[in-house]
Amino acid sequence: MAERVELREALGRTSGASAPTLPEPVRDLPSFGPYALLWAVAWSMLAFIAVPWGGERALLLLVAFLVPVGLLLHVWNIGRHGLGPLELVRVALWPPEWWGMWWPRTLRRPNDFWGRLPRGARAVRAILSAIFVLLPSMILLRERLAPGPDDDDMWFAISEVGLVFAAISTMAIAMRWALGRGLTGRDAARLLFGSTAPWPGWTQGPLARLLAPAKGTLREPERDSPADYRRAILDLITSRDTSASVATVDAGLAARGLVSAIEECDAELTRLRQLSAPSEIDRLSAQLSTLEQNPGEEARQLVALVRRQLDVVRSVGAQCEVLVHRRTQLFELLRGIWLHLSALDDDVNDAVAGRLATLCATVESALHADAKPVARAPIH
User: Fold this and answer.
1) 202-220 per-position pLDDT tens digit
2) Domain coordinates of the chain in residue numbers?
3) What is the 8-class DSSP label of residue 108?
C-alpha cells in the first residue's frame, strides 16, 4: 500500500513539474507505448495489404503483436508493485517528448502545453495530423480502394495532390498568421509545429503572451501594454466570486474607459509628433538664424514667417508634452486598478474595496478632464 501511494503521488507531481521525474518502475513507459502502437499498426497493415491469406500473413500478425505483448507484460509486472494496469497503460501511451501534433487529450502528459496553445495553432496541428495519416493511408490502400479503370486511379492521384497542396497551404497561412503577431520565424515554427512538452520558451519570451494561462492561474499583464492590462483586469474579474460586486463592475468599466482614453492619446501623439519633430525645430531655427543676417524687406518678411512656423511647431511640441503627461497618469490609474483588484480576495475586503471605489471615482474625473494632467492617485 505504501508503494501504491508513493507512485500515485509521484505521478501526480508531474502535472506541475517543468520536467517530470517519474518513479523508476514507470520511467520507460512513455517511450514504450507509442513505439508499441506504431509497431503493431505498421506490421498489421503490411500483413493485410501486401501478403495474401495464409501462413505468411499469420506470421506477420504474430510479429505485429510481439512488442505490444511485451508492453503488457511489463505493465503487469509493474502493477504488482502498486499501480493498476490501466493507469500504467495510460502513462505508457503518453506521446514522446518531441511530439507536437494531435494526440488524444486523456493520453497527453499532465504538463503538456497543447491545451494552452492558441486555438489557431491547435487547429493547424490537428489539420496537419489528419493529412499525415490520410495521405499514407490512401497510398497504401490505393489498389484496394480503386481497383477499377484508369479514371478512378486518376481521381486518386488528384486527391493525393490535393492533400499535399492543402498541407503546404495550411503551413504557409499559419506561418503568416504567426509572423503577424510579432514572432520570429523560429518562434512561429515552434508555436505551430514544435513539441508541446515543457520548455522554458513557453513561459518566457514572446511565446508566453500568446499562451492561455495555466489552469487555475491568470497571466499577468505585459508591463507597457494598456490593452493587455485591460485583458488581465477583465480575466481577474471574471475569475473571482466577487465578479458581480459593485466594486469590480465599476473597476471593469473604469479599465475600459482608461484604455480607450490612452489609445486616443496615442493616436493624437502620433499625429502631432509628425508636425513637431526635433529635426523640424532645428531646421527652422537654423533657417531663422540665416535669414536674420540678411538685410532687406523680403528677408524681414521671411523672418516673421519662419518665426511663426517655429512658434507653431513649439506649440505642437508643448501639446505633445501635455498628452504624454496625461497618458502617463492614465496608465498609472490603470495599473492601480490592477493592483487593487489583485489584492481583493473573494470575500471582498472592505478596506481594499473602499480604496478601489475611490480610485474608480478618480478615474471618472480623469476621463472627463479635457487633456489636462491628472492628479496622481495613491496606490496602496
Assistant:
1) 877 788 878 876 665 667 7
2) 1-94, 100-212, 218-367
3) S
